[in-house]
């Protein structure tokens, strides 16, 4: 698990926005992942690292222990774990997600 956590830490450190999701931004494999991508796209964020946890079972389990968060999708912005789909939606509704992603 240490090597998986190291890989996850590197992905988060090397990319401004990272979304761990089921599927890809073009073909999300669950509604929550699809909504997470839509929330990012609606804010003009298209250049982000997406990690398809369905293709990487070790990351699918590792991200849950890394963040101490039981579900996917998971969003990281500038190294900070924000949460999953519900938190992203709440942050979008309050305007907080726009501010965090650099939109006014």
Number of strands: 4
Q: Summarize the helix and strand pattern as letters.
A: HEHEHEEHH
Largest sheet: 4 strands, mixed
Question: What fraction of residues sit in β-strands?
Answer: 15-25%
Rounded radius of gyration (Å)? 13 Å
Mean pLDDT: 95
- Overall, the morphology is globular
Placed side by side, the strands forming the largest sheet appear as: 2-1-3-4
Q: Class by helix and strand content? A: alpha+beta
**Number of helical regions:** 5
Q: Would you identify the regions where 5 or more consecutive residues have pLDDT less than 50?
A: none
| Straight-line distance between termini | 39 Å
The helical percent reads 40-55%
Describe the structure.
The chain is of the alpha+beta class and 104 residues long. Helices cover 49% and strands 16% of the residues. The protein has helices spanning 2-14, 31-42, 57-67, 85-94, 96-100, and strands at residues 17-21, 49-52, 74-77, 80-83. The protein has a four-stranded mixed sheet with strand order 2-1-3-4, with helices on both faces. 29% of the residues are buried. The model has no long low-confidence stretch (mean pLDDT 95).
